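hey so u asked for the seq, here:
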Amino acid sequence: MPRASAQSSGPRLLKRAGTNRAIAVESVTFIAEPFPLTQTIQFGADNRTRILLFGENLGLLAGEGAAAITAQAEDVNHVTYSLAVEHIDPVPGYTWMTAITVRLNQNLGDAGDVLVGVTVHGQTSNRVRVGIGHVGGGPPDDPLTTLPPPDLGSGASLHGNVPFPADNPWNQDISNAPVDPNSNNLIASIGTNVNLHPDFGTFYNGAPNGIPYIVVAGTQPRVPINFLLYDDESDPGPYPVPPDAPIEGGPSSTGDRHVIVIDRDNWKLYEMGNSYPLNGGASWNASGGATFDLNSNALRPAGWTSADAAGLPIFPGLVRYDEVFELGEINHALRFTAQITRRAYVSPARHFASNNTDPNRPPMGMRVRLKASFNISTFSPRIQVILRALKKYGMFLADNGSNWFISGAPDPRWDDDELRALKTIAGSNFEVVQMGTIVTH
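ran it, structure tokens below
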């Protein structure tokens, strides 16, 4: 079964990344916590403070408004207070998000931290911390609950379920790991003045922009896979590939044509390259394929490729919409490409794809991270989610391609203009994490 990393269920109140503190502001001044119990501004018959909370997945029916939602706050003494929900409003530019205006209860006083939640149609949201009068104290956070399984379908949300065990290299915090002694030369070979490029978004040349994936149930029928190029280094089929599985670049693509399938019930990953359906998807041709047990740290055999040149899985290295917007955090490393790589690899990679033996060229599996000194505060909250992951988990060199192209899954809800902010980050802002044994044969 999937490994859970965060709480998620029904209606959800948004919180600051890495904490349980609410994303909340005073409704008129937009000043953040702590919130005074009353304001000098009179609201109707009282001057109590109104605060804006932000939520998603409220599940409101057509025509329903604030009356369909109730809100509660619990203080350090486990006393519960009702908070009047006065308005709900859409957030311009974010169709999935709702602003919820609540009025503080007159009996709260200088409570410090309280836990606030909302209830819609009998479903209660997660509870987030809000400072009333001052910040601090309050009841303990609610324990994490078991996450729901990933949704089904193309680009489906995993709801915080994380591929591979917590101690897997993909999930390793490398923010304090030593810098590789050859970092400057390796970064220069990719380009210190070449900028990061988001190789994903909404659409490009009429096709979804990025590497797509689809989540299927354990009952998905398996179909034969014919491997035409790397048969001796491929995991044999059949694979649970639906007839309509999305293909990278679209059905008519002449590119890599990756197909990625996640079996959510058996927690298995299936990946193919240069994929072509036959007879309506009754079987598929592919250059090669690899399967991964998402509950295991097992690597591919030494020297074996995968659907990626480095012999790595592709899916765990993608920037995904559900993590950026639903969770507000990415809890794993990402993947990127470089134009000229070395005839070498370093674990967890298992394969190289070059004849260049220059030790100043990057080997497959090399891990870079965004420097801790790089200021991310000027970027939007969504871009900051990506940049925090690049500082904490970094990104693996996974394939030959354009320099500093970072991979992600397509989604029509991405804001391409917002993603372009990543293009302002130069290669000089990255450093190579100290590598282990470099394999050259």
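Residues 157 and 322 are 5 Å apart (CA to CA). The chain has two domains: 12-132, 153-439.
lmk if thats what u needed
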